[in-house]
Amino acid sequence: MQLNQLMYRLPKEIKLFLGIFIIVLSIGFYTGLLFVNETSSLSSTGIQQNYLGNEGDEAATEMKFKKSEREMLSIVHSHILSMSMIFFLLGVVLAITDISKPLKMFLMIEPFFSVLATFGGIYFLWKGIFWMKYLVLFSGALMTLSFTLSMSIILLKLARSQK
Questions:
Q1: How far does the chain reach from its first CA to its final CA, in angstroms?
Q2: What are phi and psi of 66, to 5 degrees?
Q3: What does the pLDDT read at residue 6?
Q4: Alpha-carbon separation of residue 59 from 39, 56, 62 (angstroms)
Q5: What 3-state DSSP class applies to 155?
Q6: CA 34, CA 151: separation in Å to the nearest integer?
Q7: How many CA atoms are closer than 13 Å to the CA of 76, on its beta-carbon side?
């Protein structure tokens, strides 16, 4: 089955449905990033303090405590499941676009590695492997970049296919 350019052959209703889905998905994704910014200031120190606490920092403006194992397992479990579904659905829609095969494959596969690196890294940071905060920062940024690029490509292709 030829998936490349299938987007152009879809009925208008399906294209509209996909466009609205991608927009709503993006609002949810970027709202999550706003939350991450609030809890960690998008910095390696903020990430570490968010999961390990900052009780030793007398200059801290907000007191944070180390998360329990139950909280950590819940965070890792729910985020890996939900982010996997987000990137699966985004990848399915991306598969029917006509972008280059290497770029398409990268954008379809890479986010799954970033999800594992980000949330696995958070867990191992909590376990005391402190350099993982840099992996979390890098993989989170790469995941966001992949999401943004995929979402932008899909919306551009949908807009062009309406003409």
A1: 25
A2: -60, 135
A3: 85
A4: 17, 9, 9
A5: helix
A6: 18
A7: 21
pLDDT tens-place string over residues 19-46: 999 999 999 999 999 999 999 989 999 9
Assess contact for 121 and 146: CB atoms under 8 A.
no
**Closest to 144 measured CA to CA, from 87, 98, 72, 89:** 87
Q: With 0.85 as the threshold, say if the pTM is over it.
A: yes
Tokens of 43: 């910095």
Phi, psi (deg, nearest 5) at residue 145: -60, -45
Closest CA to 52 of 140, 131, 139, 127: 127
Query: Quick one: DSSP state of residue 127?
Result: T
Q: Are 92 and 3 in contact (CB under 8 A)?
A: no
Pick from 89, 94, 111: which is nearest to 156 by CA?
94
